[in-house]
């Protein structure tokens, strides 16, 4: 996954979220793409997705959590 692909995926999830569900989508991105974005800077992904910098912490936290959870989607 390239930096642009990751930023596009993050932005798409965020924009498609129902009202009040944006942060959940940020968490989902962190878990769903944990392996795909290895070696990519979270700060750059968030910057290119044009989202608040505070989401970098959320995405990093979910990357660590990803090995303990499985998606139901």
Q: What is the count of distinct domains?
A: 1
Q: What is the residue-mean pLDDT, rounded to a whole number?
A: 91
Unreliable residue runs:
none
Distance between the termini: 20 Å
Order of helices and strands: HHHH
- Total of DSSP H or I helical runs spanning 4+ residues: 4
- What proportion of the residues is helical, as a percent range? 55-70%
Evaluate the radius of gyration: 11 Å
Number of strands: 0
Shape type: globular
The proportion of residues in beta strands is under 5%
Structural class: mainly alpha
Largest sheet: none
Explain what the structure shows:
The chain is mainly alpha-helical and 73 residues long. The chain has one domain. It is 59% helix and 0% strand. The protein is built from 4 helices and no strands. The longest helix has 14 residues. The mean pLDDT is 91.
Write the layout of secondary structure elements.
Blueprint: H1 3-16, H2 22-32, H3 42-48, H4 55-65
Helix pairs in contact: 1-2, 1-3, 2-4, 3-4
Question: Could you write a compact summary of the structure shown?
Answer:
The protein has about 70 residues and is mostly helical. Helices cover about 60% and strands about 0% of the residues.
Descriptors:
73 residues; mainly alpha
């Amino acid at each position: 996954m390239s930096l642009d692909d990751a930023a596009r995926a993050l932005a798409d999830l965020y924009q498609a979220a129902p009202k009040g569900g944006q942060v959940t989508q940020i968490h989902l991105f962190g878990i769903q793409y944990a392996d795909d974005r290895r070696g990519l800077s979270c700060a750059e992904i968030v910057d290119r997705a044009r989202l608040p910098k505070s989401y970098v912490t959320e995405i990093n936290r979910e990357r660590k959590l990803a090995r303990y959870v499985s998606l139901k989607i």
